[in-house]
Amino acid sequence: MNVCSKCTLQIGDEVEVCCNSEGFLGSYWKAIIVANMGTNYLVEYKDFVDEDNESTPLQEIVIAKDVRPIPPVIVPSKYSSLKGYRVDALINDGWWVGTISRRKDPDHYFVFFETTGIETLYPLSKLRFHMEWLNGVWVPPNKRCIPISSKKRFAPTSSKKPKKMGAPAFSEEFTPVSFEERSELMEL
Known about the structure:
The protein contains one helix and twelve strands; from the N terminus they run ββββββββββββα. It has 188 residues and is mainly beta. The strands form two sheets. Strands 1, 2, 3, 4, 5, 6, 7, 8, 9 and 10 form a ten-stranded antiparallel β-sheet that branches. This is Putative Agenet-like domain-containing protein. InterPro entries: Agenet-like_dom (IPR008395), Agenet_dom_plant (IPR014002). Residues 7-75, 79-135 form the Agenet domain.
């Protein structure tokens, strides 16, 4: 899979679509871009089928701001303190945004979903760090800050001296963004 750190979406690209429909609010679903319609895209979902013909993948026109490339895979480490991290939890083939609220054991974490008010236990293998796609750049969530080592590891933000954590390194194609850069991107 080609991870896109800065790119323009093209017909045929595999993407994720943020769903804002009732019952799916804040979830991300895999799709392929079928047509670029300026401020909208026609997408074909990988895991949804047409109501009238269940053998046909669902196609839908979606607002361009709700479409993003497939994010870099950054899996939380079981050796890190993950409480408060924004993550995506894989549920029924879609990624749902939540926050790690507590740890059961090194391989299982409770995730709280703000959209539903529900806290659920997930294996670490079904979680990834949540990333925002802002103005063509992947932006890490607020809990993490600028790199503190050559391995591009991240530490929680605080006024205390940062300590190294076991968060996984980013791929070579991902460029970490500082909070100052993140603020500038969000103002655009």
